[in-house]
Amino acid sequence: MTAARDELAGAVVAALTAASPGSRAGLRGSLAAGTADAYSDIDVEWVVPDGRLTACAAQVRPVLERIRPVAAVRASPDFFHSPVRRLLFVRFTGVPLFWRLDLAVREASVPADPGEDEPVAHARDDEWSRPASALANALGAVKAVARGRFEDARGLLDRGFARIDVAGSASGRWADDVTRLALAAVAREPGLTALAEETIQLAGAELG
After folding, report:
1. Given this model, what pLDDT does residue 117 score?
2. Residue 173 to residue 177: CA distance in whole angstroms
3. CA-CA distances (angstroms) from residue 178 to 106, 136, 157, 161?
4. Of the residues 24, 126, 168, 183, which has the fewest C-beta atoms closer than 10 A?
């Protein structure tokens, strides 16, 4: 299974590098360090020529669709209006939910990590989906519990509940907590139903 994930990651890197002349892509995180486990996602950085950020970010979905169908692309609100970087979350169709692609796109002249002097570029409330973000936290909690990181799971769930104004906090009955957060996200954004159902099923399978 991890071999298939590595193959997908390699295909992503190759496709992005070829998509824009002068760009380069590479693995980041645990896959790059050789410390990935069964729950690791795919972290990739795509460095693009200066002045090409917007055009390259717009290419991401069609480029990746050539590898396999893409179910969704979501932009992090943190860099939504940045002139020099984006963080995109990509979910492919037909692969485990854990294999989300976290794609950091930046222009070549800026450092990998944003500095304090970069302009504030956060999305407005109407430009990003709080329910989708909360549902991502539910999936992250499944991963954290499976790894035995219970405090991380509690924090993810509590932040997810708060993000969509759900009263209460994580109970430690992890599958129930994930289900409650997923259903609350769907109640606020019905278009998330299929992903929420997959997340609930995964929680049942991984957490009992």
Report:
1. 66
2. 6
3. 33, 10, 7, 10
4. 126
pLDDT digits (tens, 9 = 90+) for 92-138: 999 999 999 999 999 999 988 887 767 667 888 778 999 999 999 99
Per-residue pLDDT tens over the stretch 61-80: 999 999 999 999 999 999 99
Tell me the two tokens of residue 170.
């994580």
The answer on 173 and 109 residing in a single domain is: no
What residues does 43 pair with on adjacent strands? 102
One-letter amino acid for residue 171 of the chain: S
Residue 63 has which token pair?
């480029």
Are 108 and 16 contained in the same domain? yes
Q: How far is residue 30 from each of residues 7, 38, 39, 42, 136, measured CA to CA in Å? A: 15, 11, 11, 8, 19
Q: What is the pTM of this model?
A: 0.92
**Containing structural domain, residue 63:** 2-122
69 and 84, same structural domain? yes
Q: How far is CA 153 from CA 9, 106, 194, 196, in A?
A: 26, 30, 22, 17
Same structural domain, 64 and 82 = yes
d(CA 132, CA 188): 10
